[in-house]
Design goal:
Distance between the termini: 23 Å
Largest sheet: none
Number of helices: 4
Helix content: 40-55%
Shape: globular
Length: about 90
């Protein structure tokens, strides 16, 4: 039986860890509030991994941003298509 997230936020954190290796962020679902932008969440992920967002490789940073946008912000993204609550 596979992993089944209960929200888009949970799915995002799972994907960032399982596919991106961002497992040491210390972020929880409750940290990902509606007030945060995709850029702010991306920065939180990178900082949680001990990286300086201003010095992080653009390709790496863009990959995290795409994943965040896809799960939480894109009305046609995987988050919207999943039917999961935000």
């Amino acid at each position: 039986m596979g992993y089944r997230p209960s929200s888009r936020r949970e799915a995002l954190l799972h994907e960032l860890c399982a596919r991106g290796g961002y497992c040491s962020t210390g972020l929880t679902v409750d940290d990902l509030t509606d007030e945060l932008s995709a850029d702010e969440i991306t920065e939180m992920v990178l900082r949680g991994e001990g990286l300086d967002p201003g010095l992080t490789d653009r390709k790496q940073s863009a990959g995290v941003l795409r994943t965040v946008q896809d799960w939480l912000f894109d009305p046609q993204g995987r988050g919207a298509k999943s039917g999961l609550p935000r």
